[in-house]
Amino acid sequence: MVSEGDDAPNFQLRDHEGNLVKLSDYRGKWVVLYFFPKAFTPGCTLETKEFSRLWNNFEELGVIVFGISTDNVETQRRFADKYGVRFKLLSDEDGSVAKAYGVLRPTGTAERVTFIINPEGKVVAIIRNIKANEHPVKALEYLKPLLGGTKAEEGSMN
What we know:
alpha/beta; 7-stranded mixed β-sheet; 7 strands; 30% helix
């Protein structure tokens, strides 16, 4: 698994609208990347709804949020539409990104793990082994003291 202090593995994935998303395009910004096992399951629905509920808080800090699962683009689209997701859900259908981050399970789905990536592209925090709906709260608790009222693109770990 990727560790804190490692460079975040770059990727190119399709979002729930079919657009290509490259992590490298978000260099200079704080990114919260959360992996979830499967759309429409109870835990993943709770987690995504909580990220959606708190999305304005992330946006105010200038933080980009991406949800990633091994579901296909169409499933991600239906999931995003049903729950009014305002950030990008990414389709890692072949599991290659989950594998690169060390979170691909033998079942072919991703573990529930959240990575916080700083503007330099380093993984600075990893959230795991907590309840699904706690991931967004923990990510905000980590970011708020660092970013305060400043925009993420202006912030750094120093």
